[in-house]
Amino acid sequence: MTKPEIANRKSQIENRKSRILVVEDNPLNMELVVDLLELEGYSALQATTGEEGLEMAHAEKPDLILMDMQLPGLDGFDATRRLKNDPATRDIPVVAITAYAMRGDAEKMYQAGCAGYIPKPIDIHQFAQTVARFLKRGEG
Ligand code: MN
Questions:
Q1: How far is the CA of 3 from the centre of ligand 1 (A)?
Q2: Does pLDDT of 12 surpass 80?
Q3: Distance between CA atoms of 108 and 1, rounded to whole angstroms?
Q4: How far is CA 3 from the centre of its chain?
């Protein structure tokens, strides 16, 4: 391969990287999640409020959204509902990140439109598997 061919191939691979939007208001959690995603070779987009998350979902059309449920203002439940009620964003899978783990809470997340959830504190060994599973599911 010539140098331009290699550069072209590299940019093709770069473009194929899944882009994941993280909506999280806690800086430490955000840092952990972004680090874990980048370690897996994903490209991470960051939003710190529900409102910003909606804007970025529209502008960037990520492959997957990881949504903190406890956000100030527009919370993760409402943000997910809005994403699912909007034809432009409804096909993007949303996975909740949450400290809620009670039975009724899971139901509430599914009703809002979440495809699944990752419990807090985040299990770093399960995290990559969960993300890969929901990315794959969204492909169909
Ligand atoms: Mn939070």
A1: 46
A2: no
A3: 53
A4: 35
